[in-house]
Amino acid sequence: MTMTDHLISVPGAISAQLAGVCSLATEGHRWSAGNVAAARRVLADEQSRTLIDALTERVSRRVGSAPGWAVLELPDRLGDEDLQRAAAGVLAALGRPFFSIDVGGGRLWIGNESSPDGDAASFGGFGLNRLHIDAPNVEYVPDYTSLLVMRADPAGGGASVVGDLGAAFAELSDCDQAALARPIYFEGRAEGLHGVGEPRLPFPVLERVGGRRWIRWAAKMLDDPRNAGHTAALEHFAAALARHTMSVMLRRGRLLIADQQRIAHGRAALGDQTGLADGTRRWLVQAKVAYDAHAPAQHPAPASSPVGGRHA
Ligand SMILES: [Fe+2]
Where is the TauD/TfdA-like domain (predicted)? Predict the structure, then answer.
C-alpha cells in the first residue's frame, strides 16, 4: 500500500464506495453527520484496514511519533465531485471535515483555479506561499488541514512544501522559546471564519493546550509591521524550520493531509503561466478537519495522552 514513506494509496474499490455512499452535503460549516457515518461504515470494513493503519501511523494523534502529514493517492480517473466525496470520506478517518471559510452554497471543499488576481502569495495565487499553518490567529486552530489536487500546474511548478514544527522547535534556545510564548504576535485578520472560535490577535506563537503543543506559525509574521521589535525569535524559528522542510509534487487525485499541531505547509511558485487558458491552470481545493477521538484512525485514544479536539 505504501509506495514511499509519505504516500498512501487509497484503493479504487474503497474510493468508489466512499464516492458512492457520501455526498458533499454539509450541516452548517460541517460535513453532514450522515456523510461522516456513511464514510466510517466503509472505513470500518476489513478491506479498509490497511488504509486506516497507514493513516494511524502517519497522521493520527494516537501515535506520538507520527510524522503528522501524509499524501493520499486517490484514483485520478474519478470525476471531480466523486474525487471530493471520496477525499472527504478519507478525512472522516481522522475527524469531522468542515470549512472555515464560507464561499457560499455550504461548500465543504473551497478553492478555485489559480489566478493572477489577488495576492500571489496566497492560496490560489501564482507565487511562493511561505510555510504557515492555516488560521493561526483564532481561538481554536483547525486540527488538520488538507489540500486536494484537482489539476496540477501544467507548467510544472507549485510543489507543496511541508515543515516539521516540532523538529524546528527543538532547535530553539530557551530564550527564543520564552519569547515565542508571549501573546504579542499578529498575523492577518480572522473575520467571518467558521468552526474556529473567536479571533485571537495578538496570540502566542507557542502554547500548550490540554497537554499538546501548538506552534501558531506563519512566515508572513516576519513582515507584519505589528510584530516590529519582536522578530528575532521569529527569524530563528524560520531558519530552524527551513532545515526541517521537504517538498512534494502533487498531481490530480493526491490529497495532502497535515496535522496543524505538527506540520506547517506552503507552496513553491507556479511555473510560467504565460498563455495558459482559463480552465487549464492549477486547481486545488482545501478542507479542514476537527479532531475526533472516535474517528477510526484515532481510536482508541490513550487516556494518558489528552488531545486537542474541542470544537467544530
Ligand atoms: Fe494554507
Answer: 76-286
Ion ligand 1 contact residues with beta carbon within 5 A: 134
Evaluated on CA atoms 308, 71, 131, 279, the torsion sign reads negative
Centroid of ligand 1 to alpha carbon of 217 (angstroms): 11
Q: How far is the CA of 211 from the centre of ligand 1 (A)?
A: 25
Is 283 among the domain residues?
yes
**What is the 258 CA–ligand 1 centroid distance (Å)?**
10
C-alpha–C-alpha distance, residues 144 and 309, integer Å: 10
pLDDT digits (tens, 9 = 90+) for 24-72: 999 999 999 999 999 999 999 999 999 999 999 999 999 889 999 999 9
Amino acid at 260: Q
Dihedral sign of CA atoms 275, 157, 83, 289 in order: negative
Which neighbouring-strand residues pair with 245? Answer: 163
Ligand 1 centroid to residue 131 C-alpha, Å: 8
Indicate the DSSP class of residue 115.
-
For 190, the domain range is 7-291
CATH number at residue 263: 3.60.130.10
> Is 65 among the domain residues?
yes
Question: Does 231 reside within a domain?
Answer: yes
Q: How far is the CA of 147 from the centre of ligand 1 (A)?
A: 8
Count of domains in the chain?
Answer: 1
